[in-house]
Specification:
The complex is a heterodimer of chains A (309) and B (363). Chain A is built from 12 helices and no strands. Chain A has 309 residues and is mainly alpha-helical. Chain A has a domain at 13-122 and 129-226. In chain A, helix 2 runs antiparallel to helix 3 and helix 6 packs antiparallel against helix 11. In chain A, 49% of the residues are buried. Chain B has 2 domains: 20-132 and 261-284, Response regulator (Rossmann fold, 3-Layer(aba) Sandwich); 134-258 and 292-348, Rossmann fold, CATH 3.40.50.2300. Chain B has helices at 3-24, 42-57, 73-84, 98-107, 133-147, 162-178, 195-207, 221-231, 262-274, 302-316, 344-348, and strands spanning 27-32, 61-66, 89-92, 112-116, 126-131, 152-157, 183-188, 212-215, 237-242, 253-259, 281-284, 291-294, 327-328, 334-336. In chain B, strands 2-1-3-4-5-11 form a 6-stranded parallel sheet, sandwiched between helices. A 6-stranded mixed sheet of chain B has the order 7-6-8-9-10-12, sandwiched between helices. The termini of chain B are far apart. At the A-B interface, helix 1, helix 11 and helix 12 of A face strand 7, helix 7 and helix 8 of B. Chain A: Pfam families: BPD_transp_2. Chain A: The chain crosses the membrane at residues 6-25, 37-58, 64-84, 96-115, 135-161, 192-211, 217-236, 243-261, 267-287. Chain A: One of its GO terms (cellular component) is plasma membrane.
Chain lengths: 309, 363
Amino acid sequence: MDLSSISPTLLIASLMVAATPILLAALGEMVVEKAGVLNLGVEGMMIMGAISGFIAGVETGSPWLGFFVAAIGGAAMALLFGVLTQVLLSNQVATGLALTLFGLGLSSLFGQGYVGIKANSLKRLDMGFLSDLPFFGRVVFGHDPIVYLSLLLVFAVWAFLKFTRAGLVLRAVGESHDAAHALGYHVRRVRMMAIAFGGACAGLGGAYLSLVRVPQWTEGMTAGAGWIALAIVVFASWRAGRVLIGAYLFGGIVVLQLNLQTAGAKVPVELLSAAPYLVTIIVLVLISGRAGRGGDTPADLGKPFHAST
Amino acid sequence: MKLTTLLAGAMALGLSTPVLADAHDPVKVGFIYVGPIGDGGWTYQHDQGRLAVEAEYGDKVETVFQESVPEGADAERAITQMALGGADIIFTTSFGYGEATNAVAAKFPDVKFEHATGFMREYPNVSTYDARFYEGRAVTGTLAGYLTETNKIGYIGSFPIPEVIQGINASYLHAKKINPDVEMVVTWAYTWFDPAKEADAARAMIDQGVDVILQHTDSTAPQAAAQEANENGGRVFTFGQASDMAQFKPSPRVASIIDDWAPYYIERVGAVIDGTWEQQASWGGMPEGEVVIGEITDAVPAEAKAAAEEMIAAITAGEYHPFTGPINKQDGTPWLADGEVADDGTLAGMDFYVEGISGDIPN
């Protein structure tokens, strides 16, 4: 085994790329859950974002337009969930699961004519001399714009929830929708907006896969990334900064296992391939172990709300 | 003409058709694909073969296909469905369909089955067919030996099966003939078609200094990863796999191994039409036109191109076998003596690396 062939600089740069789709989706889901809604349809919204973004990217030739359409596509899927759960008061868990199945099927229908086509990808930003710096040039200044957008979103979500009045209202709705309602806040409206935001983020994450990371369309290309995003929200105990850590940790293990294999590590390939999921499960078990104090979960997460009750 | 007469005529036609159909029933040819026909690689080429059959026989055949059939239990359902649908001959086009093909063949003794790249022929109505891809690998390995500057060439393997191991060994042996310092890096993707995974595997290789990537998976994602690296100042070369992957010419894709199944499909469907179909195990290569090397671009030095073309000519003429001794196995034990040529039985069951490749083959 020759571990010296693994370059830490490139490893970190690749893990940031590998983690970006999960980071975007997890960040959106965190906001949704902060508002007290459990949307298990992240996978379905991601894949709809991936295909709608890809179609728009191919047809117009502009990856930016692709990302824009992907956000709309993801949000549209999310609003479907929103109408069902918030207006018609359907069960959130069942509706979320249905959304995932629906998204996977619908996306492969839309994608029929788009298999094996290349889309214009986003180029890495060229920041002049900054991109030529050793280590930092590649890790900090050598990415495509969406990586920076995702980091900016982490900061924005953190600041929004912590410092703004609207963020406070959103958290109040998640903690006690009855109290928020009694105070005159529009619980349903707040939740619908949160759901749409979550869908748009998931859509962006999916489009990052089909437009930058691969860049191609394949059926089922999200390959479980949406579920990992859901796990990361719990892992992060509903905090934006920790969502970032969780996503990068997961992305890091994915990239590291391929690098270890390439470097010829004497570890069974099957174990390396399963490593990211094993680590996710272990972390979730550890977290649920200390969940006894129960301070992290939004108190009204997953509970239906109707103004009459 | 009045509407009623039109309808009556149509009804009469409709009723009489089944009777007529027995006499002129076209041969129904079924294809089971492991990926989408638009994968730009393996499945795309099989589908080109299907279209060639249609072009050759016109009204005498009717073809049906199913895409993206997973290897394993679901394959049996898909093949059974096709046999129930009246197919006369079914081509199952991936290694992992072996057991399912034989299981269905037992239930439909009148239907002919052809399993690609397999070895199981448990019933008289099952044939297997394969192509000597390792002949193409010998050519791309030679080119890789000329092209690498970092002395590291990478091979994205799908599954550790004989067909892939032949490819790894043939590429390595011929790269090493040109460049004795060459090192072979193998990554197992455990999939035939997963663009995200293939792209990540290619990126991990590039990050570690691999500058020539040979892929044994079906999507163009590794080509796209290499292109991205080259746009950012890298120097990485790739080869088209199964299909020409011409959209990545002239670089990173500098040549390709093209599978041409059309001659075989036309011959076998013809045998069904004539009623002369018999069980067989076919293994064609460059001489039969089943393995073709796509255009070698000018990104390759002239000397390398000449060497590759010479090898293509020698293999096509039957003068050169890519596994010609002396060759030792990985542990140093002799496999082939000087001048000895590998027999098909050993190749078809190849489960060892040749000397010089590091790492173990997973089980």
